[in-house]
Design a protein that fits this description.
The chain is an alpha+beta fold and about 375 residues long. It has two domains: about 5-215, OB fold (Dihydrolipoamide Acetyltransferase, E2P) (Beta Barrel); about 235-370, Beta Barrel (OB fold (Dihydrolipoamide Acetyltransferase, E2P)), CATH 2.40.50. About 35% of the residues lie in helices and about 20% in strands. It has helices at about 5-20, 25-35, 85-90, 95-105, 115-125, 165-170, 190-200, 215-240, 250-260, 300-305, 360-379; strands spanning about 45-60, 60-65, 70-75, 135, 150-160, 160-165, 245, 265-275, 280-285, 295, 315-325, 335-340, 345. The strands form two sheets. Strands 1, 2, 3, 4, 5 and 6 form a six-stranded mixed beta sheet that branches. The chain has a five-stranded mixed beta barrel with strand order 8-9-10-12-11.
Length: about 375
C-alpha cells in the first residue's frame, strides 16, 4: 500500500499522464498499426509458446505460468514504480530535490522510481486487462536467456483476433524509450523506431515536458545506441561464420569446444577482473557459461593497454586461439583465450570518451547495480 501523501501526489498526475499519452485511448491509436505490423510471427524457432498470464508486476515485467525462470521483456525499459517508503518520503520533498538525491555523485544516468513509472504500470495493467493467455516470442533463436537466467522475450496479447506486440504499443504510448542497451531488435527494429518517433512527435509520456520523468534520455539514448551499434557490427561480421560467438548464445560453450585449437572471436560484457600476483591475470566475460569466460593475460602491460580493467559491464570483443587448461581447484577443463597483443581486443564506445582508461569504475558500477536490481524484481 502506498503512502497516503504520495498517493495524493501521484494519482492526479497519473490521470493526466495517461490521458496525455493516449493510454485511455489505446484502442484508437494503436490497433491499426499493430495489426499491420504483426504478419511475421510464424518464423521457425522463434515461438516460445502461449502461457497463462499470472501477474503484471510493473511497466515492463510480467509473470506467466509454465516457465522455470522469470522474463525480461525485450526493447523496453520503463521507469521504476515506488516500491519502498524511503523513496515515497524522498519524493514528497519535491521532484527536483528527489532527482538530485537519487542521482547522487554518479556521472551516469541512474534508475529511480517516478510518477511515469507508475503510469507505465497502469498502462500495462490496462493493456493486459482481460487477457488470460499471452504469446511469448524470441528475438533470436540462439538468445534464449540473459546473464541472470531470465528468458528474453517479446510478449503479445490478442486484440480483436490479432496478436499485438506489447513492446511496440508501450513505446508508441510513450511509456518507454526503444531500449537498445543490449542490442537492436532483430525482428521489430523499424517498428520500434517508428513507435518512438511517433511518441516523441506527439509528446506522449516520457516525451511530455510536463510529466515527471527521467530528465536525461538524451544521455541514455546515445550510450545505448553506441552499444547497439557495437553488437550490430559484430553480428554483421559473424554472418555465415562459425568462428564468431556471442557468449549469451545458449550453444556458445558447445561451439567454442568445437573451435578448440583454432581462432575465434567472442563478444560479451566485462564481468570481473582477477589480477594474478604470481601468475596470469584474467578478465571474465559474462555470458551463459557459469563463472564467465576467461580472457587470460600473462603480460600485465598488455592488459593495462587494452583498457579492459576499467571497462566493467561494457561490451568488448576478443579474438584469439581457443585453448583449455585444467582448473587446479575444480579439476575440470576450462576453455579460455590468451591475449598476447592489445590488438586482439576491441571495446565498445562510450559517447564523449575516446580512451577506456578515462572511464571511472564507479560510473560503470551503476549499470551492474541496475541490472541486478532488475533481475531481483523479476524473480
Amino acid at each position: 500500500m502506498s503512502h497516503p501523501v504520495t498517493r495524493r501526489l501521484l494519482l492526479p498526475l497519473l490521470a493526466a499522464t495517461l490521458a496525455a499519452c493516449g493510454a485511455t485511448e489505446a484502442t484508437r491509436y494503436s490497433r491499426k498499426a499493430a495489426q499491420e505490423s504483426l504478419g511475421k510471427l510464424e518464423s521457425p524457432g522463434l515461438a516460445m509458446g502461449e502461457f497463462r498470464l499470472t501477474k503484471v508486476v510493473d511497466g515492463d515485467t510480467i509473470r506467466v505460468d509454465g516457465l522455470d525462470s522469470s522474463l525480461r521483456l525485450l526493447a523496453l525499459d520503463t521507469e521504476e514504480t515506488f516500491k519502498n517508503e524511503k523513496d515515497r518520503r524522498a519524493f514528497e520533498q519535491g521532484w527536483e530535490k528527489y532527482l538530485e538525491l537519487k542521482r547522487g555523485g554518479s556521472k551516469r544516468p541512474v534508475k529511480a522510481a517516478t510518477p511515469m513509472g507508475e503510469a507505465a504500470y497502469a498502462f500495462a495493467k490496462e493493456f493486459f486487462e482481460g487477457v488470460d493467455v499471452v504469446r511469448l516470442e524470441l528475438d533470436n533463436p540462439r538468445e534464449i536467456r540473459d546473464r541472470y537466467d531470465r528468458y528474453l522475450a517479446y510478449v503479445f496479447a490478442q486484440k480483436d483476433g490479432q496478436w499485438v506486440n506489447f513492446a511496440v504499443e508501450s513505446i508508441r504510448a510513450g511509456m518507454s524509450p526503444y531500449f537498445s542497451k543490449y542490442g537492436y531488435s532483430r525482428r521489430f527494429h523499424e517498428e520500434l523506431v517508428e513507435a518512438e518517433r511517433e511518441a516523441r512527435a506527439a509528446q506522449r509520456g516520457i516525451w511530455d515536458p510536463k510529466t515527471m520523468h527521467y530528465p536525461d534520455y538524451d544521455l541514455r539514448k546515445p550510450w545505448w545506441t553506441a552499444r547497439a551499434e557495437f553488437i550490430a557490427e559484430f553480428d554483421r561480421k559473424a554472418r555465415g561464420r562459425t568462428d564468431h560467438i556471442s557468449l549469451t548464445d545458449y550453444d556458445a560453450l558447445a561451439r567454442l569446444e568445437r573451435l578448440e585449437g583454432s581462432e575465434a572471436t567472442v563478444i560479451g560484457t566485462v564481468a570481473e577482473l582477477r589480477l594474478g600476483d604470481r601468475g596470469p591475470s584474467k578478465v571474465l566475460l559474462s555470458g551463459r557459461m557459469r563463472g564467465g569466460f576467461p580472457i587470460v593475460f600473462f603480460d600485465k602491460d598488455v592488459l593495462a593497454s587494452t583498457g579492459l580493467a576499467r571497462w566493467k559491464s561494457e561490451y568488448v570483443t576478443v579474438r584469439g586461439v581457443v585453448t583449455s587448461y585444467v582448473n587446479k581447484r575444480t579439476k575440470r577443463a576450462q576453455l579460455q583465450i590468451v591475449v598476447e597483443r592489445p590488438s586482439q581486443v576491441a571495446v565498445s564506445k562510450i559517447p564523449g570518451l575516446e580512451n577506456p582508461a578515462d572511464v571511472l569504475d564507479d560510473d560503470l558500477d551503476e549499470e551492474a547495480d541496475d541490472d541486478a536490481a532488475q533481475a531481483a524484481r523479476s524473480n
